[in-house]
Amino acid sequence: MTQTLRRLLPKGGTLPATEWEHRHRALLVLLWLNVFGLGAYGLSQGYGLGHTALHAGALLGFAVVGSLTRLTRLVRAMSVSLGLLTAAALLVHVTGGLIEAHFYFFVMIVALTLYEDWRPFLVAVAYVLLHHGIVGTLDPHAVYNRPQAWAHPWVWAGIHALFVAGAGIGAIAAWRLNENVRDRMLATQAQLEDAAMMDSLTGLPNRRQLMADLRRLSETPDPAETLLAMFDLDGFKSYNDTFGHAAGDVLLARLGHQLDGAARPAGTAYRLGGDEFCVLAPAPLLDVDAFLDLLAGAMSAHGEGFAIGCSYGAVVLPTETSSTEEALQLADQRMYVRKTGGRPSAGRQVGDALLRALEERHPDLSPHLGGVAAWSEAVATHMGMAERDVARVRQAAELHDVGKVAIPDAILLKPGPLTPHEREFIRRHTIIGARIVSAAPALARVAHLVRASHEWVDGTGYPDGLAGDEIPLGARVVAVCDAFDAMVSRRPYRPGVMTEDQAVAELRRCAGTQFDPHVVDAFGAVMRARDGARDTIAA
């Protein structure tokens, strides 16, 4: 019976401090309105200024105490509760015991529900009982409007207190319902937060959880050494193509479970997405090489017609780097080197073939492409781009003119100015080039840079009219380096050649319209570093 009653009653204490303060301020405002409103109403009913001042003074004391933030929540809540109940009693008094004025008590009871606390309700019942009993004994006509109540004030005080208690019970029921709703909302929110941090396929923490854990490590004073290892499956695409995605999902779940088992109890396994996984573990407790071999073994599977292995890269935080971003990049680069085994990637081989075809078609472009590629690689490196991204920028610089294989020589090599029609035709080379490069899936990101290599940061470039950060950073790098090399190289339509200083001045003049100012600054820094190295060698 007790447990059943306990389940029906509110738990209490579930109201957050900020929400309690918000509700307290609302009730405090209501009390201050009563301070001034009842005073004005008393004057309108013919009460003298002194009498009215007594009414306002009684409420004023409660309002001031309720406003003192240095006091405890209980003291402030009790003060406001007593003030509101006193306001209800004063309304009955000012109206000469008008029966309708008694309803104001019930309005205050409902208002006190906002506190979600037992004590204001107990205060309300005791207040009504004592007020109606004592005042009803001293001046029955000030409280009651019938002979029976005048004759038996305490009996009727008890009856009124019971009605107030009934209102309190109704308020408590509403309070309990509020708690039920809040509990369900919090439970749902917790489930959503858990789901957001968990990979649904493997049940492992996901990339978001990894980033949160790494951020927590970076914010820890004097953190212990932590091993960050990234894993990428070898042969999984072939497995997926052969056995289907459903079988691939089953395999990923199994390998994730194996990795989790191998990592525990020392470390935590994560699935980053696709066939990429990660492990965090405290390095001082491990034989790192043996631990990595154990993890790599857990990420392998063999069967009839398939063999799955993995490549991995590892870094120790904060020994090798204290930056989360750098640690992830370094681990990814080491994994990439292990995966390729030092051999040219498929994307590199395809890119070389396309570059050779372009050189055969237009041999005069070869020095230009080499120059743009070298400048682009240096600028991208100076700007702190990841090694893999630097490689993509260099390859995009080499291939940014590959679409010119589709441009007739009569237009491409024309010594004079181009007509508007010819200019529009030659502008299509970025679209054609991106289409050619993207035919190799391994070069999809390079193709994206090729297409955007002639966009302007002010949005007036081509072919898509991209602006600012909408243009990939790699494409903005290629654009600056391409323009510089074009200005210092002799062209059929422009026999004159700028000096390097003139070309750099032109880049700076066009920074913010055609070129990204940050890339132009980085290009200038690379040039100064080159010139400084030349001076050192000459000396």
Task: Describe the protein.
The structure is a single chain. Helix 2 runs antiparallel to helix 3 and helix 5 packs parallel to helix 8. The chain is built from 23 helices and 5 strands. The protein has helices at 2-8, 17-44, 49-67, 73-94, 103-112, 118-138, 147-151, 153-196, 207-218, 236-243, 245-263, 288-298, 324-340, 346-361, 365-382, 387-399, 409-412, 420-426, 429-438, 444-451, 473-488, 500-509, 517-538, and strands at 226-234, 268-273, 276-282, 301-303, 306-317. It is elongated and about 115 Å long. The chain has 539 residues and is α+β, with helices and mostly antiparallel strands. Strands 2-3-1-5-4 form a 5-stranded antiparallel β-sheet, with helices on both faces. The relative contact order is 0.05. The model has no long low-confidence stretch (mean pLDDT 80). The protein folds into 3 domains: 2-192, no CATH class; 207-340, 2-Layer Sandwich (Alpha-Beta Plaits), CATH 3.30.70.270; 346-538, Hypothetical protein af1432.
Strand order of the largest sheet: 2-3-1-5-4
Query: What is the share of helical residues?
Result: 55-70%
Structural class: alpha+beta
What overall geometry do the principal axes of the alpha carbons give?
A: elongated
N-C termini distance: 97 Å
Largest sheet: 5 strands, antiparallel
CATH homology group of the largest domain = Hypothetical protein af1432
Identify the CATH class of the largest domain.
Answer: Mainly Alpha
Give the ordered list of helices and strands.
HHHHHHHHHEHHEEHEEHHHHHHHHHHH
Count the beta strands. Answer: 5
- Assembly type of the chains comes to single chain
Radius of gyration: 39 Å
Number of domains: 3
CATH architecture descriptor name of the largest domain: Orthogonal Bundle
Mean pLDDT rating: 80
CATH domain topology of the largest domain: Hypothetical protein af1432
Number of helices: 23
